[in-house]
Amino acid sequence: MLNKNLIVTTVLASAAVLPVMAVNMSDTLKLTEIEVIAPRKTSVELTPLTVSTVGSETIENSGQSSLLPVLQNQIPGLFVSERGFAGYGVSGGSAGSVSIRGVGQGNKVLFMIDGQPQWAGVFGHSLPDTYVANGVERVEVVRGPSSLLYGSNAMGGSINIVTKRATKEGLSGRSRAMFGSFTTQKFNTAVSYRKGKFGATAAGQVDRSNGNRAGSDFWLANEYLQLQYKADSHWQLGSNVDMTQSKANNPGTIQDPLVSMWTKIFRGTASVFVHDNFGPAKGGFQSYINWGSHHVDDGYAPDADPTDYIFRSTDYNMGLIAFQNFNLWKSNEISVGIDFVHWGGHTWNYKKADNSKYGDFTAHENEVAGYVMMQQGFFNDMVNINGGVRLQHSSQYGNEWVPQAGFILKPFAGNSLKFSFGKGFRAPNLRELYLYAPANPDLKPEYLYNYEVEIRQSALDNRLNGGISLYFIDGKDMIQVQRVDGRPRNMNIGSFINKGFEIDLSYMITPRLTAMANYSYLHTDGDVLYAPKNKLSAQMTYTPDRWSFTVESNSIWGLKTGGPDKSNYSLLNLRGSYTIPGNAPVTLMIKADNLTDKHYEIVYGCPMPGATVMGGVEIKF
After folding, report:
1. Are strands 109-113 and 157-163 parallel, antiparallel or unpaired?
2. Which of 497, 524, 586, 620 is most buried when burial is the number of CB atoms within 10 A of its CB?
3. Is 245 within 8 Å of 221 (Cβ atoms)?
4. In terms of pTM, does the model score above 0.70?
C-alpha cells in the first residue's frame, strides 16, 4: 500500500504533467534550465549523444554545497550513494559512488573539471567530496558511454564541471553563510574581476558538521583560482588551480560499528590551456595534473584493540589534451583529437608508534589515444548523421577500439528523434592489476555497447519542453573475483544487461511559476547496488517579486542497499528566500529537507537523517 509520502510525490508529479496533457498527450518536457549542450570537444547540432546541462542558477538556488545531490535530483537515471548528512569519504565504507542507468560501480562514470579527468591514480575511483557547488557555471552530463571523446572511465557516462569565468567588467561576486541541523556551518564565496582582455576568478568554501550520527563529523575546505587572457579574437589562454582538504569520520554500520575510523585527504588539480577560434576551425590544447595525498585509519570494533598503523597513499594522473573542430562545408563538422595520460601512485602503511613504513607499493601506466568524428546534416538539417572512432593504446592492455554512430531526424518544428550506438570502456586500475591478493596483471578493460533512442518535443514558444529516452546496455568482461587454483584472482568474467527508459518534463506556466518532473525506470539482470529500479523527482517554483518558494519531492523504489531488503522512500523538501534590493542585494534563505521525517537507508546499516533545517544569508556585489 502506498504511503502518504508517495501520495505527495504523485500529486507534485501530476502538477507538472497535467498542463502537458491539456496540450498533447504525447508531448513531453525537459527539465527547467536543462538543455541539450555538447561536450567541449564537439558541437551539439548534429551529435546523437544524450547530454543535459544543469546551470548555475539551479545549482545556487538548491542551497547545496555539494554538486552530487543537485545532479541526482535534476538528471533522470543518475543516482548517488550516501551514508549520512555530510561527507562521502574515500576508503572502506565510503559513499559518493555515482551510477548512470545502473552503470557506475568501480568508477565507470568519468568526472571532469573543465575537461580534466578527475580520479585517484592508484584506486581509480572518483573523489566525491571534491565536487563542490561553489564557483560552478554549469555541469554537463552525458547519459551513456562517451569513451569516443574521453576514453577510459567514461564507460557509463561523463560529468564535466565547468567553472565560472570572469565575464563582467570590474569586480563582482557573492558570499554565503548557512547554519543548521547537527551544528552544520557552510561558508562560501566567489569573486571575479575583469579588465579588458584579462580576467580572474577566485572561490573558497568551508563546510563543518557533526553529522547525523555520533562519530560522523565532517570538515572540508576548497580553494579555486582561474586566470584567463584573451590575446585577440582568435586566441585565449589561461590556467586554473583547484584544491580540496577534508576529513570524514565514519562510525561504521549499525550492525558493525567502528571506533576511530577516519579519512583525511588533500586533492589538487591544475592546468594550463590555450583555445583557438578561426571561424571554420576552432579547438584547444590543455596540459593538466591531478594529484592527491590520503591518510586513512581503518578504525576498530568497540571490543577490539585499536589499529597500530595508518594507511597512506599518494597518486597522480597527468596528461595532454589537444583537439580541433573543422566546419569545412554547410552543416558539417569534423572533430579530431589526441589524448595522453600518465597515471600512478604509491601506497604504504606506517606504524603509529614510530612512523616506520612497511607494505610499500609503487606503479604507473601510460595511455595515448587519437579519435576522429564526423557529423553531417542533409535537407536543411532535417536529417543528420554522426560517426566516429577512437583508438586507445595502453602500456598495460594494448589497443582498444571505440566506435560510435547515430543519426538525428527533425521531421517538424520543435521535434527531434535521435538514435545512437556507442561503446564505452574502463581500463583496470592499479589495485586490480597489482595490489592485494586478487591482483591480476593480465586484466583487460571492461566494456559495454549502448543502444539508445531519444524523442524530444518543444511547444508554446519553448515554454513546454521534454523528452523520452529508451536504452539497452550490454556489458562484457566485467572484472570479478574468481577462485583460480584455490586462490582469489581478478578475472574478466562478468557480464550484464541493463535496459530502461527516462522521461523529463518541464512547463513554464507563467514567468513566475514553473514545474518540472523526471522519472527513470531501470531493469537489470543482476544485483546492482545503489541503482534504483524507479526514481521520480518533481519540483514547483514560484517567484513573486522578491520572494522565491520551491517545493520538491524525490522518490525511490527498488534500491539495493547491500542488506536483505530493498529500500523504498519518498522525501519532501522546501526552500524559501527573500531578497532585499540595493547596490549589494542581500538574500535571506531557509531550506528544510525530509519534512515528513522519513526513516530510510541508502547504504545498508547507515541510517540517513530525518527532518533537517538550514538557514542563511547571501550577499551579491
Report:
1. parallel
2. 524
3. yes
4. yes
